[in-house]
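INTERNAL AUDIT FORM
Audit reference: QA-55
Scope: verify that the stored structure record matches its stored sequence.
Auditor: D.O.
Record contents follow.
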Amino acid sequence: MSSESAPLARLSMSLPAELFRQLDTMVAERALPSRSQLISELIRHALAEHESLTRPDEMLAGTITIVYRAERGRVRHQLSHTQASYLKEVISSQHVFLEHDQSLEVLLVQGPAVRLKELCDAIRRIRGIQQLELVTTTSLLPPLHKQDIGFYAKIGDNA
């Protein structure tokens, strides 16, 4: 985040009293400095979700969180096979074993919204998947490598 403050716009809204109370409770439980910070977070989440639904070619980054039963490695094998079909989109994955023969896997992903949705659908089709959630953001990872054609040509000349 930059040290300069972004220009702010004011929003006035009316909420049912119970919803307002729940909002204040959530702000207090998270120890946030203001309602505005929480509402901004909720709006950013809704906007990223909206982008993924309405602009299928829009580039998004995010995570896919998966909980599954570890049934003798079959599910892990199928997950690996599915991820291999989406090498451009799956940047990394983290796996941990949970209690009661369950596993948690988190994939760091980036790509067109339509490809991320296809990846989620492919994972959901694997028998044994118990939970799956895609969380996206419209902010992207910086390019991991910039190809400098001249640099690679020089290496080839020296070989």
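Auditor finding: record pair retrieved intact. The radius of gyration is 21 Å.
Action required: none
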